[in-house]
Amino acid sequence: MDVVLRAMEDGDLPVFFAQMADPEAVWMAAFTAQDPADRGRFEEHWARVRADPQAVQRTVAAADGRVLGHVAVFGPPQEREVTYWIGREHWGRGAATAALRALLAEVPDRPLHARAAADNAGSVRVLEKCGFAVTGTDRGYANARGEEIDEVLLVLAG
User: Fold this and answer.
1) CA torsion 70→75→81→84, rounded to 10°?
2) Residues 95, 97, 100: CA angle, nearest 5 degrees
3) Torsions phi, psi for 69 (to 5 deg)
4) Is 98 helix (H, G, I), strand (E, B) or coil?
5) CA separation (Å) from 55 to 59, 72, 101?
6) Which of 57, 103, 115, 132 could form a disulfide with 127 if both were Cys (CB 3.0 to 4.6 A apart)?
7) In sequence order, which ranges of 52-129 are alpha helices (DSSP H)?
8) How far from 124 is each of 23, 34, 64, 66, 132, CA to CA, in Å?
9) Crossing angle for the helix pair 121-129 and 95-106, to the nearest 10 degrees
10) Angle between helix 13-20 and helix 39-51 axes, rounded to 10 deg
11) Residue 153: burial class (beta carbons within 10 Å; 0-12, 13-18, 19+)
């Protein structure tokens, strides 16, 4: 799937909110906001994200301009991490892989880190297709599941 990365716009936020409140997507992502339906906390989160001068965040759009999701790099230099969210209706079409590859071409920082729920095979596959290597596992509290779960740790080396 062809995607375009562009600067985030205020009008993208309602799409992100709907995508990030989708119960099936929330379950799959696992490490989400405590209450994905809390619009106020969502707005506060995105205000902080968009104000962070070290973060690189992009809207992922289709060639026709439809918003597919978002992708970002954030964190201090030694711990830079990638994150992405693609709306469930676009899963399985290569949008996440294309978006992450485009972001990695734009952001030369290395190493970059990533985490994914261990049972989220699709996300782990996206990261591996983009050059990330599994470096270990951890356990973390997954708000979406209400319990600690296994997660996979990955790194994209320089």
Assistant:
1) -10
2) 105
3) 160, -150
4) helix
5) 13, 7, 17
6) 132
7) 95-106, 121-129
8) 20, 23, 28, 25, 9
9) 40
10) 120
11) middle
* pLDDT by position in tens, the chain (length 158): 899 999 999 999 999 999 999 999 999 999 999 999 999 999 999 999 999 999 999 999 999 999 999 999 999 988 999 999 999 999 999 999 999 999 999 999 999 999 999 999 999 999 999 999 999 999 999 999 999 999 999 999 98
CA contacts within 13 A on the Cβ side of 1: 22
pLDDT of residue 1: 85
Q: Rounded to whole angstroms, how far apart are CA atoms 87 and 146?
A: 22
What is the predicted pLDDT for the residue at 77? 86
- 59 half-sphere exposure, CB direction, 13 A CA radius: 22
Which structure tokens are listed for 39? 């619009």
Q: Which two three-digit tokens encode residue 58?
A: 């992009």
Residue 119's identity, in one-letter code, is D
> Residue 132 has which token pair?
């990330």
Cα–Cα–Cα angle for 152, 156, 158, rounded to 5 degrees = 155
How many Å apart are CA 137 and CA 43, to the nearest integer?
A: 31
